[in-house]
Write a structure and sequence with these properties.
By secondary structure, the chain is α/β, with parallel strands linked by helices. It has one domain (about 5-15, about 25-200): 3-Layer(aba) Sandwich (Rossmann fold). It is built from five helices and seven strands. A hairpin with a 7-residue loop joins strand 3 (about 60-70) and strand 4 (about 75-80). The two termini are about 15 Å apart.
C-alpha cells in the first residue's frame, strides 16, 4: 500500500472525543516501551509522527493518525496508538483510568476493524500480554500479534522464539504472528498485508 498522506489528528482522553467521521480504525496495543510508536512511524516512513521515548509511559492518551492511501480501492483510515500497560511509575488511579479508556475503546468502537498486539520478541508474551489477547478474544476483536525488536535475535533464536510463542498462543484466535524490526524492516511487508486484510474485511 502506498501512503499519500499521514497526519496526527487528536489525542483522546474520553469516548466523547473520538473522531466522528466514521472511518475504519486499526489499533496498536502492548506493554509500555514495546515499540508501538516506532512501529507506526516506520510503517508510514515518517520519523517523529508518533512521539517515541526511551522512557516507558510516554503515550498516555489514545492518539489518532489519519492515513490516506494513494490507491482509491482503500478508504482513508486511522492508526490508533494506545497507552502501554505494565508501566508502574504512575499512580494506581492513573493506571486504572488508562485501563478503562483502553477497554472501553477496544470493546465499543464500532469502526475498529482490527488490532495489532505487540510483544517483545526477546522475552515472548508475558502475563499481561496473554490477558490482553484473551480479553480481545472475549470481545471478538480481530487481532494479529507482532513480535517487535526482532533484530535483537539471530535467525535461529527467532525460529525458536516463534515456536515458543505459537505454543503460548495456541488456544487464542490470533490472525497472524509477525516478527518485526523497525531497524531492518523485517516483517514490514507482512504487516501491510495484514492491514489490507483488516480493511477489506471491514467493508
Amino acid at each position: 500500500m502506498t501512503i499519500k498522506h499521514a497526519e496526527f489528528i487528536i489525542s483522546v482522553a474520553a469516548a466523547a472525543q473520538l473522531p466522528k467521521d466514521n472511518l475504519p480504525q486499526i489499533a496498536f496495543c502492548g506493554r509500555s516501551n514495546v515499540g508501538k510508536s516506532s512501529l507506526i512511524n516506520a510503517l508510514l516512513n515518517r520519523r517523529g509522527l508518533a512521539k517515541t521515548s526511551n522512557s516507558p509511559g510516554k503515550t498516555r492518551l489514545l492518539n489518532f493518525f489519519r492515513i490516506t492511501p494513494a490507491e482509491s480501492i482503500y478508504p482513508p483510515f486511522y492508526f490508533v496508538d494506545l497507552p502501554g500497560y505494565g508501566y508502574a511509575k504512575v499512580s494506581q488511579t492513573e493506571r486504572e483510568a488508562w485501563r478503562q479508556l483502553i477497554e472501553s475503546y477496544l470493546q465499543n468502537s464500532p469502526r475498529l476493524c482490527g488490532a495489532f498486539a505487540l510483544i517483545d520478541s526477546r522475552h515472548g508474551p508475558q502475563k499481561n500480554d496473554l490477558d490482553l489477547l484473551a480479553w480481545l478474544a472475549h470481545v471478538r476483536q480481530r487481532v494479529a500479534v507482532v513480535a517487535t525488536k526482532a533484530d535483537k535475535l539471530s535467525a535461529q533464536q527467532r525460529a525458536a522464539r516463534q515456536r515458543e510463542i505459537a505454543v503460548a498462543l495456541q488456544h487464542l484466535p490470533v490472525t497472524d504472528l509477525i516478527f518485526y524490526s523497525s531497524l531492518t524492516a523485517l516483517g514490514k511487508k507482512e504487516l501491510w498485508q495484514q492491514i489490507r486484510e483488516f480493511l477489506v474485511r471491514e467493508k
